[in-house]
Amino acid sequence: MCLTVAAATVAVTAGVLLAMGRTLWGTAGQPGLWSGDIWSQFNSQRLADPYTLTHISHGLGLYGLLWLAARNLPVRVRGVLAVAIEAGWEVFENSDWVIQRYREATISLDYYGDSVINSTGDILTAALGFVLASWLPWRVTLAGFLLLEAVLLLWIRDSLLLNILMLIYPISGVKIWQMGM
Q: What is the chain's Cα-based Rg?
């Protein structure tokens, strides 16, 4: 039952994103599984990209937050809640206000929002992070989160925590470093 509700949540989210004007495969309309270049027109348009790794971190964090807030609920119910929260984030992230904020405050100067396929992949990846956190000891989960942050900082000069910081409180020196200047 929980898997059915989670799948329905993903399907409804895809419908909402299409209704918001998001395209199935993004602005170029070209299907693809992976875009490894965060500066290309295919970033956030393909099923996965380097930012997909931040959604694993979303799932790890959602597991921890939901354990703190609702540990009496069965883990499968908390998993459905995590999928719903992540789906809500994908809708919010693709609102005109957030897209404009990304373009003004972060290195995502040419960000036009996620494709529906990319958002779906992000939700599923967050669900994977949640499942991993439910299976692994908390120390391993924390180490995994920190490792993902470090890999992303070295690879693309961005990470979940840095992305949050730059959305909320942009720092020009950080943005300059992120752009490789």
A: 16
Whether residue 159 is contained in a domain is answered as: yes
Q: What is the pLDDT of residues 119-160, one digit of tens each?
A: 999 999 999 999 999 999 999 999 999 999 999 999 999 999
In a domain, 29, yes or no: no
Closest CA to 83 of 66, 95, 103: 66
Express each pLDDT in 57-72 by its tens digit: 999 999 999 999 999 9
Paired with 34 in beta bridges are: 48
Count the domains in the chain: 1
Q: Is residue 104 pLDDT above 90, yes or no?
A: no
